[in-house]
Design brief:
Layout lengths: L1 E5 L2 E8 L3 E6 L10 H7 L3 E6 L17 H15 L5 E5 L1 H12 L6 E5 L21 H11 L1 H16 L8 H12 L3 H13 L12 E6 L4 H13 L4 E5 L6 H4 L1 H17 L1
Parallel strand pairs: 3-4, 3-5, 5-6, 6-7, 7-8
Antiparallel strand pairs: 1-2, 2-4
Length: 275
């Protein structure tokens, strides 16, 4: 991997292949390795870029006291500039999908395309006035849990709460993939876990009706119903966007159904590249 120096830390990234840039942004508490099935599929035809978002993977902790989706997007912009990438296709999962949405809001026609896996716009509670959200924040309880049990156990507790609410195998339908995701969480320190959660919770998306970027939204069948609803809202805002739901898959749809995800992405990429 290579590194990009930031004002308050170091961003670790990796590039493979040549061609039109295809940039992958991973989900919360994961790392760039979660895109391996897609990297292996597309690095023959594209310049594939993966990186570890600050607080995650080899990038790890940075000096910032508070994280935000906007800050993560600043880092994406810095990486694109550093690598001199024009008209990239951006592929984000979960937290990464938020980063891609923020980028498209800032640059409605800069990306050649966007693939949003497990696309989420904001964390529950939904439709709450922004001024009230800080007063309903679960962050104090989360901080207590982190201090007592650590990142891995706190994440397991979050998964249990989601499953109890939705009745779905939300994160992954594959026990091995779910176990690997939880192991990745175990590598993240308590403070970094809290800062990432805070960034997710506080993010308030803009209306994207001004965005011209061809967009594909992909959800797993076992995705939380509220998240699916957000995906449909997103598709209704972005002109020409389309949504796909893959059976036998959860939130980590690119890992649960890698061949189907890759096939759908390849069809979309051919169309986006031609445009």
């Amino acid at each position: 991997m290579a590194e990009l120096s930031l004002e308050d830390g170091t961003l670790w990234y990796e590039t493979r292949g040549d061609g039109q840039p295809l940039v992958f942004i991973h989900g919360g508490w994961m790392n760039g390795q979660s895109w391996q099935p897609q990297v292996d599929r597309f690095d023959d035809d594209y310049e594939v870029v993966t990186f570890d978002v600050r607080g995650h993977g080899q990038t790890g902790a940075t000096e910032a006291d508070q994280y935000s989706v906007e800050l993560f997007t600043d880092d994406l912009e810095a990486l694109l500039s550093h690598l001199d990438l024009e008209a990239p296709i951006l592929c984000g999962l979960s937290l990464g999908s938020m980063v891609v949405q923020e980028f498209m809001d800032r640059h409605p026609d800069r990306a050649a395309g966007a693939i949003l896996g497990g696309a989420v716009r904001s964390m529950p509670p939904l439709n709450m006035p922004a001024e009230l959200k800080p007063f309903m924040s679960p962050l104090p309880a989360l901080t207590t849990s982190l201090s007592l049990t650590g990142s891995k156990t706190t994440f397991r507790s979050m998964l249990g709460s989601i499953r109890a609410t939705t009745g779905e195998r939300w994160l992954s339908v594959n026990p091995e993939i779910q176990s690997q995701a939880i192991d990745a969480v175990d590598e993240i320190g308590r403070d970094e876990f809290r800062k990432v959660f805070d960034a997710l919770y506080r993010y308030e998306p803009s209306n994207l009706s001004h965005v011209e970027t061809p967009t594909l939204v992909v959800h797993g069948e076992q995705e939380a119903p509220l998240v699916k609803r957000q995906g449909r809202q997103l598709v209704s805002e972005v002109g020409g966007a389309e949504r796909l739901e893959l059976s036998d898959s959860g939130h980590l749809v690119n890992l649960d159904r890698p061949n189907a995800f890759n096939s759908a992405s390849e069809t979309f990429l051919e169309t986006a590249s031609a445009a």
